[in-house]
């Protein structure tokens, strides 16, 4: 099964962080994939990814509008960087691109 993990964060650390997390979760689940999203918002880190989550993930999605804390934990993984607004508005398209990439590398 495909497993996608993500970390979302935005400059203000409020609405878009959580909207992007929800959009990524919904789009991945629509593909039948396992998904876990860590949010790094104004209230701190929620739903923190474990070492096991990272190890078992096929793809890591990181928002790129602001620095992601502890990004070094994803070294060696396939990382896709996306703008926070694209994560919110184009999550389905993002999952289609991930699916195509995974099919090519399978």
From TrEMBL:
Domain PTS EIIB type-2, chain residue ranges per copy: 4-100
Enzymatic reactions: D-fructose(out) + N(pros)-phospho-L-histidyl-[protein] = D-fructose 1-phosphate(in) + L-histidyl-[protein]
Record has Phosphoprotein as a keyword: yes
InterPro entries the UniProt entry points to: Bacterial_PTS_Sugar_Transport, PTS_EIIB-like_sf, PTS_EIIB_2, PTS_EIIB_2/3, PTS_IIB_fruc
Alphabetically ordered keywords of this record: Kinase, Phosphoprotein, Phosphotransferase system, Sugar transport, Transferase, Transport
Coiled coil stretches, renumbered: none
Enzyme class, UniProt record, top EC level: transferase
EC number: 2.7.1.202
GO biological process, any: phosphoenolpyruvate-dependent sugar phosphotransferase system
CC per GO annotation: plasma membrane
Molecular function in Gene Ontology: kinase activity; protein-N(PI)-phosphohistidine-fructose phosphotransferase system transporter activity; protein-phosphocysteine-sugar phosphotransferase activity
Record bears the keyword Phosphoprotein: yes
SUPFAM superfamilies: PTS system IIB component-like
Protein name: protein-N(pi)-phosphohistidine--D-fructose phosphotransferase
């Amino acid at each position: 099964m495909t497993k996608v993990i993500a970390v979302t964060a935005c400059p203000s650390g409020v609405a878009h962080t959580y909207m992007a997390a929800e959009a990524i979760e919904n789009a991945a689940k629509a593909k039948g994939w396992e998904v876990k999203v860590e949010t790094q918002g104004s209230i701190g880190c929620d739903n923190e990814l474990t070492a096991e989550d990272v190890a078992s993930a096929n793809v890591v999605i990181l928002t790129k509008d602001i620095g992601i804390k502890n990004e070094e934990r994803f070294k060696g993984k396939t990382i896709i960087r996306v703008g926070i607004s694209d994560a919110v508005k184009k999550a389905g398209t993002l999952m289609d691109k991930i699916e195509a990439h995974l099919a090519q590398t399978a």
